[in-house]
Amino acid sequence: MADIYESLNAMNYMNAVVDETIRLYQGSKIERIPSVDYVLKGTGITIKKGHVVQIPTYAMHRDPANFADPEAFRPERFLPENKAHNPYTYLPWGAGPRSCMGMQMVKWLVKLALVSLVHRYVFHTTELCSSN
């Protein structure tokens, strides 16, 4: 099992494809409900206890200030040599101590499913696909 895990993690381009797919098609939203009133530093804005705070990840992931050509599917942006973006602009799993506990397991299962599909089936493009 350790060999499979290491092999999947070594597949940099597949990892980048998964990250880019999640960037464009995130399956959930990030919300928090504060247990106490919280004042945002330097703004004077107070978030009241019990109010729902939602992080606009859809907008963040499609903002040209965060990702060049944000509507394009470009997995290369997540390759190790290109990961120069601000880590808090890519938040499909949240961040910090309250980030998604199942992130690693979900990513591992998605990669395992992709490898199984590619291993079992032959995929072809159609004339509707562009040549590049």
Architecture blueprint of SSEs:
Blueprint lengths: L1 H9 L1 H13 L5 E3 L5 E2 L6 E2 L5 E3 L1 H5 L41 H18 L12
Antiparallel strand pairs: 1-4, 2-3
Q: Encode the helix/strand succession as letters.
A: HHEEEEHH
Question: What is the typical, i.e. mean, pLDDT?
Answer: 88
- The residue fraction in helices comes out at 25-40%
Main beta sheet strand tally, sense and closure: 2 strands, antiparallel
Morphology:
globular
Features:
132 residues; mainly alpha; two-stranded antiparallel ribbon; globular
What does this entry look like structurally?
With 132 residues, the chain is mainly alpha-helical. The chain has one domain. It contains four helices and four strands. β2 and β3 form a beta hairpin. The longest helix has 18 residues. The chain is globular.
Can you give me a brief rundown of this structure?
By secondary structure, this protein is mainly alpha-helical. It has one domain (about 1-120).
